[in-house]
Amino acid sequence: MAQDFSEREVQFETHPDRYRHWKLTFDGPVATLSMDVQEDGGLLTNYKLKLNSYDLSVDIELADAIQRIRFEHPEVHSVVVTSLKERVFCAGANIFMLGSSPHGFKVNFCKFTNETRLAIEDASQCSGLKFLAAINGICAGGGYELALACDEILLVDDGNSAVSLPEAPLLGVLPGTGGLTRLVDKRKVRRDIADFFSTLVEGVRGKRAVEWRFVDAVCSRSRFDESVAQRAADLSASSDRPSSGPGVTLGPLEVTRSGDRFEYSTVTVEINRMKRTADLTVRGPDGPQPSDAKAMLALGDQYWPLRAFRELDAALLHLRLNEPEIGIVVLKTQGDREAVLAIDRTLASHRDHWLAREILHFMKRTLKRLDLTAKSFIALIEPGSCFAGSLLELALAADQSFMLDDPDQPTAIAMSVLNGGALPMSTGLTRLQTRFLGEPDKVETLLAIGEAIEPHVALQTGLVSFTPDELDWDDELRLMIEGRASLSPDALTGLEANLRFAGPETLETKIFGRLSAWQNWIFQRPNAVGERGALKTYGVEGRPEFDWRRT
User: Fold this and answer.
1) DSSP character for 414?
2) What count of other Cβ atoms lies within 10 Å of the Cβ of residue 466?
3) Count of CB atoms within 10 A of residue 161's CB?
4) DSSP, res 252
5) In a 3-state reduction of DSSP, which class is residue 398?
6) Range(s) for CATH 3.90.226.10 in the chain?
7) Which residues pair with 281 in a beta bridge?
8) What are 218's strand-pairing partners?
9) 191: pLDDT confidence band, cut at 50, 70 and 90?
């Protein structure tokens, strides 16, 4: 009997010692990520990962490798992404995996791969870590989308190797990881050329690939290794990363599970299956915290902001992939507001140090992961909460926030310098700027508040949604949560995605918006996933059968 993705829990934590699909090597300032996908190493056993095609297990390793290079190897300035398969770079996402996956898994698979490719671009733009795609064979679909995320693309010119996005003609779907957007927005490929290219099965090779901007350069197979080494060295020279370590080792995250409760050192998740809700609590820092970069390095991965946001990231991924029926996540915090603010001040004052910079960018990416998660987030600001600075971003990211107004049990929130721009959304705006898009002058006024903000001020300024008193607190929360849990999950997903990203469009928002609006729809259409849809008939006798009506 064939396995199903619903029957197994996806584990996101891994380590280079356990990689089955990638080999990570280092040569001074250059790291090499070599793709060598194990055919039988997929999440399930009912498909083979041939031709360096990938499923989620492959991308989990890739995401881990990028993260480890950023934190564990500050001396690395450039990364070569290539293949160990002969004359094959990457055939893209495995078609049989996609054809057999439930709809929700396909969407979340694409979302994670998008986040991973955007992490590559973030490392380039924000951390001085440059990426070179060394395409040494056929490069199709998601393989080419991986290359598009790199700073430069070098293609072997051997008469056989080509780049392609064949999803539309072959599979009846779209490139799922930003390929179309990157062609025209990032590489500035002409729209008509991009259109033609995206209807080709065979792709484009050689000098034409350079002329049409699909790659940056081509070179003969005999000179390929030499050219890759030279270009990687040139990219390394442009980096502002340190010339040597030490780095920070990312140890395994320890989690204790008991039924529907799982607990990390700073994050706890408690699931209520009957209500289809989860409580996610983040605990603030305890005891004295580092005040300089040397002390940060000494603590390594146990430094609170790195540890807490790694655990928060892990919890979000677990809820996203493994708990599809949990529709509402209640966000809580516990701890000392001042301790959180002190951490924020230290990170801000040392943001020119590579470690502080990497921590801030990781916090940013984790909060973006929350923004992009198809759950309703409700923040509860209660006595003992520490929604301050970087943790206030959780409340600002929530779809609604409730703050208890009880003079006998005081509650407060607080701003820090990190609310002013260090943790932007996918739009490039801060969550404060997004919240007050119609009142931009208000943001600076709020950031200047140097004291704890009590419920009446928080409500008056618009920093929270509602401030029930102690008599109404339980009833208002219960009615809101029960009412929201009764609504269509599809409608809520669309509602939240439309409302969370006010303001300008960016490459990121286009990628996710188009994925949500188009691929999500296409993945449910019979032309793709019907009995004779293109995804179902790929690799078997006969042609797909389409409903020819445009909608």
Assistant:
1) B
2) 16
3) 23
4) P
5) coil
6) 5-237, 257-495
7) 268, 332
8) 155
9) very high
Q: Which of 208, 155, 211, 144 is nearest to 180 (CA)?
A: 144
Which tokens belong to 480?
Answer: 């809101």
Angle at 9 between CA 33 and CA 34, to 5 degrees: 10
State the Cα–Cα distance between residues 413 and 452, nearest whole angstrom: 6
The region, left, alpha or beta by phi > 0 then psi within -120 to 50, assigned to residue 203 is: left
Q: How many alpha carbons fall within 13 Å on the CB side of residue 546?
A: 13
**Helix extents (H) in 222-329:** 224-237, 293-299, 304-322
Give, for 208, the enclosing helix (H) or strand (E). Answer: helix 206-211
Euclidean distance between CA atoms 296 and 289, whole angstroms: 9
**Residues 6 or more apart from 287 whose CB is under 8 A from it?**
none
Q: Taking all residues of the chain, what is their mean pLDDT, rounded to a whole number?
A: 94
The CATH T-level fold of domain 5-237 is 2-enoyl-CoA Hydratase; Chain A, domain 1 (3.90.226)
Q: How far apart are CA 37 and CA 52, in angstroms?
A: 5
Check: CB of residue 158 under 8 Å from CB of residue 120: no
Residues 304 and 92 sit within 8 Å (Cβ to Cβ): no
**Nearest in space to 285 (alpha carbons), one of 312, 307, 259:** 307
- Cα 134 to Cα 147, 152, 156, 161, 300: the distances in Å are 8, 9, 8, 12, 33
Mean pLDDT calculated for residue range 476-502: 94
* pTM attached to this predicted model: 0.96
d(C-alpha 137, C-alpha 513), whole Å: 31
**CA dist., res. 378 & res. 194, Å (int):** 42
Mean pLDDT of the region 500-528: 86
Rounded Cα gap, residues 142 and 200, in angstroms: 15
Whether 412 contacts 453, CB under 8 Å: yes
Element (H, E) at 68: helix 56-72
The two tokens of residue 263 are 């607990």
Which CATH fold would you assign to the domain 257-495?
A: 2-enoyl-CoA Hydratase; Chain A, domain 1 (3.90.226)
Which residues does 548 contact at the CB level (< 8 Å), separation at least 6? Answer: none
Cα(542)–Cα(532) distance, integer angstroms: 9
Distance CA 462, CA 46 (A): 52
> What are the start-end ranges of the H helices in 275-326?
293-299, 304-322
pLDDT digits (tens, 9 = 90+) for 126-182: 999 999 999 999 999 999 999 999 999 999 999 999 999 999 999 999 898 999 999
d(CA 447, CA 417): 7
Residue 434 pLDDT grade (very low, low, confident, very high; cuts 50, 70, 90): very high
